[in-house]
Amino acid sequence: MPSLAFIGLGIMGLPMAGHLLGAGHQLRVFTRTKAKADALLRRGARWCESPADAAREAEFVFVCVTDTPDVRDVLLGDAGVVKTVKRGAVVVDHSTISPAATREMAHELSLRGAHLLDAPVSGGQGGAQQATLAVMVGGDRDAFDRAEPLLRHVGKTITYCGPSGAGQLTKLVNQILVSVTNLAVSEALVFAKKNGLNLKTTIDAVAGGAAGSWQLANLGPKMVDGDLRPGFMIDLQQKDLRLVLQSAEQSQASMPAASLVHQLFTAAQAAGHGKDGTQALFTVLEKLAAIH
Amino acid sequence: MPSLAFIGLGIMGLPMAGHLLGAGHQLRVFTRTKAKADALLRRGARWCESPADAAREAEFVFVCVTDTPDVRDVLLGDAGVVKTVKRGAVVVDHSTISPAATREMAHELSLRGAHLLDAPVSGGQGGAQQATLAVMVGGDRDAFDRAEPLLRHVGKTITYCGPSGAGQLTKLVNQILVSVTNLAVSEALVFAKKNGLNLKTTIDAVAGGAAGSWQLANLGPKMVDGDLRPGFMIDLQQKDLRLVLQSAEQSQASMPAASLVHQLFTAAQAAGHGKDGTQALFTVLEKLAAIH
């Protein structure tokens, strides 16, 4: 069995690393706050003092951190993966970051004979815990074929999307869909509420047809109940929308709706909803409608 | 069995009237172009020379025309239903029209002792043919209870939404969801295309998760294939969005996304796509992205 490393044990990374360990692999781990690794270390994972230390000896190096600068630091920093990575090793980055930066870092690693796969995930903390994530992968096809059996331990839908960056771009497509469909649901329910409709009856009447979506079925009832607990946090949605708008500008794609929802989420953050779930967009639109 | 009348035998009304006739009811029919009634007349429906003539003797009068002025003419015009409608009769309006105008017309009919139910449908021509429509009903609850067994001949999901106008308002909620979710799909696929992704692979990678919707699953592939044949026509979507924005203004609900999609559909109409399906929004956004 190949030797693995996992860097970044946050709410997503920790359960994903646990699945790989559970499948019987040797696992070297590093994360900024060592205490987060305790449970894995008790189960036999080996603590490492830096990304470079973790990558040493590993045939596959998994990374799951937050944003582009974090990945750059893990991969190319002074104690980064690039310092020790084995020739032929595959680095799998599960973070959602800039497609352009991904391509640059893939090039840097290739100079050391290693492959970088961009492999952002969707499905949230629940998907990570239940190993039902969707994994969208870009990079070298052979490297993907070698990594795929390992990805099946953490995800249900594993898609090879194309060359380096294609996984990140596909994740950004996902985020455009998620956020603009959320806006559709929020605005529709504000209209319903301002016009005196029973919101639960309204959702039931329309959810089964052409108006239906995951966002309506899952976030609609939370909006009605005022349940703002995060499935996916507005602060993270905003980070992803910044990546969308940046890539859109670079590719000369005009994104009026993604741009609008980004602005409305900025209003949500200003109103203190950054750490709430994306369904708080409803709350913000409702307040907007109530200003007079 | 109650005697029925059906007024308006267009692409929606004709199959709906056929289901009521097929269930064994006596059916009096009127529509502007008599030839459209031929098939029903051969099956035993009785031709009438005006809405007033059709409504005479009928316990339930169904109406399925296009816009608010059409319904007003059918119900309150010189040869309108109001001239002959029986006391206690139930008028069921399947058209999608102004909620405020619906309430006014319900009042006019109530002066003659008749009930108006607003009962707009969703599900398109296919839903009408297969009797799988969603029917959203507003008006007097007892009148709804009397009409419901008949509505079950034309629809699958029959929802009582509240007092007069509530069916129309629920349909407008449906149209906000349908049109803004369509915008989400169009914009996401333009982003994907401009960034060189394989569109079918992209849809497969994301459709099963939080990004999923009826619009993505059903219109996404048509966008990819350039199939602009109408399931629902942009000209009709625009009529409904005008009703949305009008009702939103009256109820002081702010609708930034519905407003945006209305403007983009206006661009689509200007580019000659008015009679195309709503998936032509993708084509328009793609052209927008290609202007330089």
Largest interface, counted by CB within 8 Å of the partner chain's CB: A-B, 73 and 73 residues
What's the pLDDT, averaged over the residues of chain A? 96
Number of strands of chain A: 9
Side-by-side strand order of the widest sheet of chain A: 3-2-1-4-5-6
DSSP helical segment count of chain A: 13
Report the uncertain regions of chain A. Answer: none
Give the CATH topology of the largest domain in chain A: Rossmann fold
Order of helices and strands of chain A: EHEHEHEHEHEEHEHEHHHHHH
What name goes with the CATH superfamily of the largest domain in chain A?
Answer: NAD(P)-binding Rossmann-like Domain
Amino- and carboxy-terminal Cα gap of chain A: 65 Å
What is the CATH domain class of the largest domain in chain A? Answer: Alpha Beta
Content-based structural category of chain A: alpha/beta
Can you give me a brief rundown of this structure?
By secondary structure, the first copy, chain A, is α/β, with parallel strands linked by helices. The first copy, chain A, has helices at residues 13-22, 38-42, 51-55, 68-76, 99-110, 124-129, 141-151, 166-194, 199-206, 214-225, 234-250, 256-270, 280-290, and strands at residues 4-7, 27-30, 46-47, 60-63, 90-93, 115-118, 121-122, 133-138, 155-162. Chain A has a six-stranded parallel beta sheet. Chain A has a three-stranded mixed beta sheet with strand order 7-8-9.
